[in-house]
Amino acid sequence: MKKHSRIGTWLALAIALVLALSACGNKPSGNAGASPSESSSASPSASASAPAAGADNPLKGKNIALIMRLNTGTFSAQYVDGVKKQVEKFGGKLTVIPSDNKLDVMASNLDAAVNQKYDGILLDHGDAGALTAGVQKALAAKIPVVAFDSGITAEGVTSIAQNDQKMAEQTLEALAADAGGKGSIVKIWVAGFPPMESRQIAYKAFQDKYKDIKQLAAFGTADGAQLDAQTRTEAILKQYPEKGSITAIWAAWDEFAKGAANAIKQAGRDEIKVYGIDLSDEDLAMIQDPSSPWIASAAVDPASIGQVQVRYLYQKIHGDDTPATVQLDSVYVSRDALPTDKKVTTADLSEYVKGWGASDQGVTDYLTELEQAVAGQ
What residue stretches are annotated with the Periplasmic binding protein domain (predicted)? Predict the structure, then answer.
């Protein structure tokens, strides 16, 4: 009897040991050692919320295409710099694709960008007739598009523009005031660009308002704009050699203003004043030069234009609803407002001209967090 009892005891112990080991082996390994907050009990709503702006933020690492109709002059250079720096602040990469002032080439570049599956597309100085079909392809491919000065009204696109009529009005009204409401002027302008067409509307209103200001000539081309403006201004000066025969030149683009100013200065016709539109550091240096005939311009900070355009593109990438149009207000910059004892650049122009400088348009909390996360890497 004692022998059977010992066997029963050992058998009971063995069964208990097996059951204990089995219980240990059935414990879920994924939660081993995990605290409640680290377990897989997160709610669906938490996983669906927007992720924090950390290293895994889905807005980082985007490939952005900037398709430009033309990329000439210092205004364009500063605009591109603004675009590039803002994309980099968001942790993305920018590819600039110029089109040599050919709309058919720009349309082809847009199609190629869609086929290459860029994460977002920026357009600069395009045309609705040439680009709308390509824009529709981009939207169908779920690639967001934000255009600058392109006149595109396709649903789903945000179009950013300077207040071109206001800029023209600012410079033309200053010209009329300085001339005493009478005189003879030359217009340098080119058709076929949405901002130029808007500026022309203001010019026609100016002509209607100031009947005693006569137009002597009008010309301009986008190809080799500065050199062409200089050459043709030289010809106009020879055609009207008497001092006082030309009161002023109104240039609807800073590249035109530079060419005209060079021709006037070389000819010694210091009685002729130049009024321009758009502004860069190079332009400011000429306006500050007391020997230059270029005395004023109306403009929006080109770098801030690029920054604002990128912000709205990233809002679209994020899935936000964005406005169909965004308008950027201009300021009037004259030589009288600038110091005579130091050189001014667009970076410090806000110290002397109210309303100039970096814009906060398009900024959101999550884009600010994204910038901070990228900067902190």
Answer: 64-319
b/e string for 59-88 if b means 16 or more Cβ within 10 A? Answer: bbebebbbbbbbbbbbbbbbbbebbbebbe
The pLDDT of 136-143, averaged and rounded, is: 98
The answer to whether residue 22 scores a pLDDT higher than 50 is no
Listed in sequence order, the residues at least 6 apart from 33 whose beta carbon sits closer than 8 Å to its beta carbon are none
Pick the CATH number of 164-299 from 3.40.309.10, 3.30.70.260, 3.40.1700.10, 3.40.50.2300: 3.40.50.2300
Cβ-proximal residues to 30 (8 Å cutoff; 6+ apart), any chain: 40
Nearest to 323 by CA among 306, 335, 311: 311
Q: How far apart are the first and last CA of the chain?
A: 78
335-350: pLDDT as tens digits: 999 999 999 999 899 9
- pLDDT 10s digits, 254-278: 999 999 999 999 999 999 999 999 9
Instruction: Tell which residue, 236, 338, 233, has the closest CA to residue 288.
Output: 338
pLDDT tens column, 173-232: 999 999 999 999 999 999 999 999 999 999 999 999 999 999 999 999 999 999 999 999
- DSSP reduced 3-state for 308: helix
Which two structure tokens, joined as six digits, stand for 45?
């709503």
Spatial distance between the Cα atoms of 286 and 291, rounded to a whole number of angstroms: 9
Distance CA 84, CA 47 (A): 33
Q: What is the pLDDT of residue 29?
A: 32
Superfamily covering domain 63-162+302-329+362-375: Response regulator (3.40.50.2300)
